[in-house]
Amino acid sequence: MQSCLGVYIDDNLIKYAKVSKEKDNYKIESSGTKFYEDINQAIKQIVVETNSSKIPISTNITGESYDYFSFYSGIKEKDLDKSLGMEFEMQCAEKGVNKDELERRNIYIIDQDNADQMIAINVSADKNTIEDEKSLFEKYMLGTIQPLPIGIMNLVKLDDDKNELIVNMEEKTTLTFCENGQINSIQEIETSISEALREITKRENSKTKAYEILKNITISSQDMDTLQDGNEYMDVVIPILFKMLNELKEKMSDFGRQIHKIYFTGTGIVINNVDMYFQDRLNDIQCDLIKPSFLDSQSLKIGIKDYIEVNSAISLAISGLSNDNKLNFAGKKGFKIQGLEITGLPAGKTPKVKSLKETAEEKLDAFEKLTLRLIILSIIFLITYTAITGTIYNNLADKSADATQKIADTQSSIATMAKTKTSIEYLTSEYDSIIAKLNSGTATNGTSTFRTNELNNFLTKLKSIIPTEVKLVSLENTEQRHIVIQARAAKYQQLGYFKALLEAETQEGSSYKSILSNVKASTGIRYHDDTLDEDYILITIEGDLTE
Asked: Measuring CA to CA, which of 250, 359, 410, 471 is 20 to 30 A from 221?
């Protein structure tokens, strides 16, 4: 059985949950909340109370940023990584941020609006912040640091045919938009439930008491905006929820698609009937609290509300039990998983195990001999059967994989040829004109000083690879074999992809070589085309003709 301790760290509040996993079944072993003045002491107490000193710990990253980059889905993995790195570098330069001070991770999703495109969701965070978080757990087995707005999806069964939204009302209020069963984007609104906690703490002079007061507030379904008996802090909570509602509506409008269902989680859901508050104002959208589905199949030691109160910690623990977490900022250092233990034996006593020699010297009766022979025959039969069926299955799997790969390659080739044909038809006249100008402009005393054949070959190759989204502004042969190209496009990744194609090696006869060598690109500059009323990015790419 594997176990992991999820620790969500908020402003002076820690939520924790120890989750175990056996096959595909999860179980919450222990959970709770703890306010702290000394965070190191609080973490130590939690580890001791949950007996988690020898199991991995998973926590949330703070101060992270989310960026989105679009790429052609047929691009090769190595070119994709190059293009994404170039995109991120250009964006950092544009924002005046030092990319070397940031740590980043990314995942890829299919663009729901264009099947030929995929979107890279890039998550970045300050390296110093990450090191500070690691130092909190240096005495323990830190296994995972990951962004909570994505990890919270562990607790929701998304619908493959609907648009859904997860609202996490923690110290920050984050919105996880999901489209047809996959993540679309992460957004954030300004108002958070922590504003209510701070105001109540200010009046009561106690964070713990303020939290308990928040848990005991009940919003009446009959009149959601009036003060109820026993709810003396309704005047604090209702205005904050109303601001959150308006900001939520604005973000959903910007999303541009109908939201069918909203899930609420985080500290805000300790307020009784908070989901009904939003439901009454979003009549056409179903509003529910997140409840981990596996809780239905286990006997609960405490009330369901106490479990969902620590949803954030539960989702982090489940992320820590995953074998393939591409958004883990804890690094590649491995950790051991808690193993099985022998229980039920008297203290200090261990059953004696007979040696092989002692076992062999014992005599067998006739029945035992017959049984042993049958077992041996059965084992031989199973080994033979397994070997034969395994070979057949592997052959079938290989054939199936080959067929699938050939189909994918064929479809990719068709798409590439269609794209190339369009590009060639669009740019033929432009490149022919450039060839004529270069040939006529470089002639001296009737003798051409320009390598006409090489230029023709270069331009022919250029026509075959240039993406349709990229337009040439100018092309110059400044000296010897040096080529200077100015190109423009609406997005950075289109220009990055074009640069990667120029320096990618392709087969020519029996050798491989790129179109240009020593390729360099300037930092892109954004302009506005008044004639077309559109923005574009202009970069200069330089390189030498390969021989």
From this structure: 250
H/E segment holding residue 517? strand 516-521
Report the 10 Å Cβ neighbour count for 496.
26
Contact 136, 235 (CB under 8 A): no
Cα–Cα distance between 205 and 182 in angstroms, integer? Answer: 43
Strands 57-60 and 2-9 turn out to be: parallel
The better pLDDT of the pair 192, 386 is held by 192
Q: How many residues does the chain have?
A: 547
39: closest CA among 11, 78, 80? 11
Q: Over 60: is that where the pLDDT of 346 sits?
A: no
- Top-ranked range on mean pLDDT: pick from 217-221, 529-533, 536-540: 536-540
Our CA angle for 422, 423, 424, nearest 5°, is 95
Output the CA–CA distances (angstroms, integers) from residue 89 to 71, 92, 100, 453, 493, in the order listed: 16, 5, 9, 37, 11
* Segment 139-142 long-range contacts (CB within 8 Å, at least 24 positions apart): 139/44, 140/43, 140/47, 140/52, 140/53, 140/57, 141/53, 141/54, 141/55, 141/56, 141/57, 141/335, 141/336, 142/56, 142/57, 142/59, 142/330, 142/335
Q: Cβ contacts of residue 331 below 8 Å, gap of 6+?
A: 134
Is the Cβ–Cβ distance between 321 and 29 less than 8 Å?
Answer: no
Distance between CA atoms of 246 and 189, rounded to whole angstroms? 10
Give the global pTM. 0.61
Burial readout 234-250 (b: 16 or more C-beta within 10 A, e: otherwise): bebbbebbeebeebbee
Please list, in sequence order, all residues whose beta carbon lies within 8 angstroms of the beta carbon of residue 494, skipping any fewer than 6 positions away.
467, 469, 470
Name the one residue in this structure whose structure tokens are 């702290």.
36
CA-nearest of 169, 203, 200, 167 to 186 is 167
The span from the CA of 424 to the CA of 73, in Å, is 21
- Look at phi and psi of residue 52 and say left if phi exceeds 0, alpha if psi is from -120 to 50, else beta: alpha
C-alpha atoms less than 13 angstroms from C-alpha of 545 in its C-beta half-sphere: 22
pLDDT digits (tens, 9 = 90+) for 2-38: 999 999 998 889 999 999 998 888 899 999 999 999 9
- Tabulate helix, strand, coil % of the chain (nearest 5): 45, 25, 30
Q: By three-state DSSP, how is residue 183 classified? A: strand
